[in-house]
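INFO worker-7 received task bundle
INFO bundle size: 2
INFO processing item 0
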Amino acid sequence: MTFEQVQELFFELRVNAEPSGFHGFLCGRLCSGAMPLDQLIALSIDWLGLSDEQADAAENRLRDFYQVALHSLENSAFLFQPLLPDDELPLPERLVSVGLWCSNYISGLGEGMSSEFAVSEDAREALEDIAAIGQISVDFDTDEDGERDYAELVEYIRIAVQLIFADLHSDVQADEPTIH
């Protein structure tokens, strides 16, 4: 699902949530370890504050969304992309979405951590960077370099998340979903 499709789903459900933040939370949970899909849906229903009726209306689309997100994280071709708004939006608005994605990624990952949680030094540094990006400020003048910097930031996040996922799932075969 695209950013706009998730935004439309939230509008239909009358949910006040940001698609990037939700995707970040989902990816953090997926990185923290395998869990049954029904349990992930229940966590998301709580995160979104959905009623039973809203949850029933969204369940199939959420299942599809999760499968695509997991596949992109597990794929050996490095297809993962954080779900962010299109480049037509002003840079400050896109940066807010990047910050929401990162802070919710850290939240989702932290929620799924167990006492055995251990990562490599590179993954630890990537986690620290993502946490810092989650605190991003948009109080600056944008210029042409801002677009290039934004693209580099998104690419860094993309690679960092794949590194963290691979580090925490070294026993998972690429392209084999762990959630069904």
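INFO item 0 finished
INFO processing item 1
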Amino acid sequence: MKILLPVDGSEHSDRVARHVVQLANSCADYEIVMLNVQAPIDAPEVRGHMPAREIEAMQETRGGDAMASARALLDAAGISYVPELAIGPVAETIARIARERQSDAIVMGSHGAGALVSALMGSVAREVIHLAPCPVTVVK
């Protein structure tokens, strides 16, 4: 079973990671791709003052930070996974990666970090359900 696990560093992501640990423990043959998607930074005031490589490095750092907690949970449980960072529109990128990786399922949180992000992540989850090439499990 190929599972795509999008995470954003929130408590909801940690719940999802714990759920994936349970799934992996009940399935002898699994492959997990832990994904963090960073939205593109297109603001002219940023692009005009920072070289593209610095912006990319900043997004890589943010992505690594967002995966740290979920990585620790999977590591502690002895669950193997492949971390991946992508930059793009969040829902579309999750669906694209699921398609490219031929994922059997996407397991993601219903909300993200912070009040505003939570509202946005709820809409991201709905959009992923609409765009996904495979079943999507949304964990509360």
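INFO item 1 finished
INFO post-check item 1: The chain has five helices and five strands.
INFO post-check item 1: Residues 2-139 form a domain with the Rossmann fold fold (CATH 3.40.50.620).
INFO worker-7 idle
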